[in-house]
Specification:
Quinone Oxidoreductase, Chain A, domain 1, Rossmann fold, seven-stranded mixed β-sheet, six-stranded parallel β-sheet, 8 helices, about 25% helix, about 30% strand, globular, binds NADP nicotinamide-adenine-dinucleotide phosphate
């Protein structure tokens, strides 16, 4: 089977299509034929050697949407459409391969209302968004500011929080992103970081410390900084750095929302996996209103 590997850290040009041995699923694992994946920032940060990295050579990729070819004998059977996410960072192996074996409890049935290509945009970004919002504690009627609201995690977080009854505002990097985020249900969207204050909760997906945006006694979560801003200390703010957890159960929550028409998935570009270098460059250029999808 083919897979995307790197034999050293570097730019997109180190991504290579390689012939790899097919995995043999262990007990409790599901073997999935990959139909699509998407590119996440962790993929390029890992490739570039910006994060604590595992040794090369390694197989890349975090998201997966595909068809079960061998079930776990319990929850999943051949032919099931499924999604999952995997931590290449901690395991040194990823999902950009033709066949992938994964523990069944990390897998969910794919949404029925969208293609597997669209479903491939959901796992990592969706889990991050829903778990970060769980950490913030969604309270109907409260105000939430999402930093990086046009991004993959930000765009899903806006929709999830609006759906939960919060009044959601967004900060984006470009004027062209404003209408798209308003279209996700945000109350207001701005490109100006100044003048943002008084929010009950702030979710930072852009790596922008804006501690003044949260009210005293509010909540502040960042997924894009290694620490919370020092300026939050002494203000009674419940502040945390959040790290995503793999979870079939949380994926199933997200799938239900997609199938209920309450969570919209966004694709900016499709690329066959043989175009992995060009696809990665497109993703890293930024300014996207949706995910870059890889098809297998
Ligand atoms: N902690 C975890 O477990 C975890 C999990 C998933 C992701 N992450 C991290 O979270 C971040 C977001 O992930 P993602 O998948 O949502 O990435 P993404 O799709 O690239 O979204 C990031 C968004 O932030 C925007 N942004 C950047 N600088 C900005 C600024 N100065 N003002 C306003 N918006 C700005 C970007 O806009 P442009 O595109 O216009 O630059 C983009 O819309 C990444 O750093 C990723 O590594 C962490």
């Amino acid at each position: 089977m083919r897979g995307v590997t790197i034999d050293r850290h570097g730019g997109p040009e180190v991504l290579t299509l390689t012939e790899l041995p097919e995995p043999v699923p262990a007990a409790g694992q599901v073997l999935i034929r990959t139909v699509a994946s998407s590119i996440n920032p962790v993929d390029w940060k890992t490739r570039a050697g910006l994060l604590p990295t595992v040794p090369t050579p390694m197989v890349m990729g975090s998201d997966l949407a595909g068809i079960v070819v061998r079930g776990d004998g319990r929850y999943f059977a051949p032919g099931d459409r499924v999604i999952t996410t995997w931590s290449q960072l901690t395991t040194g192996t990823g999902t950009w391969v033709g066949l992938f074996a994964v523990p069944a409890d990390l897998v969910a049935r794919a949404p029925e209302s969208v293609s597997l290509t669209e479903a491939a945009t959901l796992p990592l970004a969706g889990l991050t968004a829903v778990q970060a919002l769980d950490r913030l504690g969604l309270v109907r009627g409260e105000t939430l500011l999402v930093l990086g609201a046009a991004g993959a995690v930000g765009g899903l977080a806006v929709q999830l929080a609006v759906d939960a009854g919060m009044a959601v505002d967004g900060l984006v990097s470009r004027e062209a992103q404003v209408p798209a985020v308003l279209g996700l249900g945000a109350r207001s969207v701005t490109t100006r970081a100044s003048g943002l204050h008084g929010y009950d909760a702030v979710l930072d997906t852009a790596g922008l410390p804006i501690p003044g945006a949260v009210r005293n006694g509010g909540r502040y979560v960042t997924i894009a900084q290694p620490t919370v801003p020092d300026q939050l200390a002494g203000r009674g703010v419940d502040a945390a750095v959040h790290y995503v957890r793999q979870s079939g159960t949380d994926l199933t929550r997200l799938v239900a929302l997609v199938d209920a028409g309450r969570l919209r998935l966004r694709i900016a570009a499709h690329h066959p996996v043989r175009e992995i270098v060009a696809a990665s460059r497109a993703m890293e250029a930024g300014g996207l209103l949706g995910k870059v999808v890889l098809t297998f």
